[in-house]
Design a protein that fits this description.
- The structure is a single chain.
- By secondary structure, the chain is mainly beta.
- The protein has a single domain (about 5-210), classed as Lipoprotein localisation LolA/LolB/LppX (outer membrane lipoprotein receptor (LolB), chain A), CATH 2.50.20.
- Helices cover about 15% and strands about 50% of the residues.
- The strands form two sheets. It has a twelve-stranded antiparallel beta sheet.
- It is globular, with a radius of gyration of 17 Å.
- The termini are far apart.
Length: about 210
């Protein structure tokens, strides 16, 4: 079997840039939060390009890869690549299952993309959680939320910048930063970080397509 998926690149992401002061939930207008979350809930499909990095906090190992991510309600497509070497691997998921293609085109099948990654690489990548996190959406079980307030011409919008959430019996701390307006309207983060006691996952987004 080929080397681990995230050992195929030379790029390593830097930390999230310094963000404006965060505001706790108690100091935020709930309507400003709801307005932004309702906008995010209306997104049914999206695409991004960027880089994803994985840090093993116990062994101090770190790996990174360029990424193209296409997401629809029932379809997931991930392409891992290097700008000079081209496609390194692909991961696809539909309602019928998931398949991972390595750099030689060898296919490996599984029930879900998340379970397939865990089986092939012994890595519990919180892919299902990341689908929600990357947009700036607030999972129902999130706690200890903090926000950044954007003063709009008509109504203010409050975007998530930090929270904690349990996923598959793991506690993740989520940080979101560098929100940018997409299509001259919707605010989406361009830097995302998830961290638990063992792993840190960073995603830097260069381009959103909605």
């Amino acid at each position: 079997m080929k080397a681990r998926l995230l050992l195929l690149t030379i790029l390593l992401l830097s930390g999230c840039a310094t963000a404006p002061p965060e505001i706790p939930m108690s100091a935020i207008d709930a309507n400003a939060v709801a307005r932004h979350q309702q906008q995010l809930d209306a997104i049914t499909q999206w695409q991004l390009t960027g880089q994803i990095a994985l840090f093993n906090l116990q062994t101090d190992e770190r790996d990174a890869v360029y990424l193209e991510w296409q997401q629809a309600p029932t379809v997931l497509n991930l392409r891992f690549y290097h700008p000079l070497k081209g496609t390194l691997a692909r991961l696809e998921e539909t309602t019928s299952g998931a398949v991972y293609y390595d750099e030689d085109g060898q296919a490996y099948y599984g029930a879900t993309a998340e379970s397939l990654i865990q089986r092939l690489f012994a890595l519990k990548l919180p892919l299902n959680l990341l689908r929600t996190v990357v947009l700036g959406k607030q999972p129902p079980q999130a706690r200890a939320q903090r926000f950044q307030l954007f003063d709009e011409a008509d109504l203010p919008a409050a975007v998530l910048t930090e929270y904690e959430v349990n996923d598959q019996q793991q506690l993740w701390r989520v940080q979101l930063a560098q929100y940018e307006r997409q299509n001259n309207q919707l605010l989406l983060p361009t830097e995302t970080q998830l961290e638990n006691s063992q792993w840190r996952v960073k995603l830097r987004i260069r381009k959103w397509q909605l």
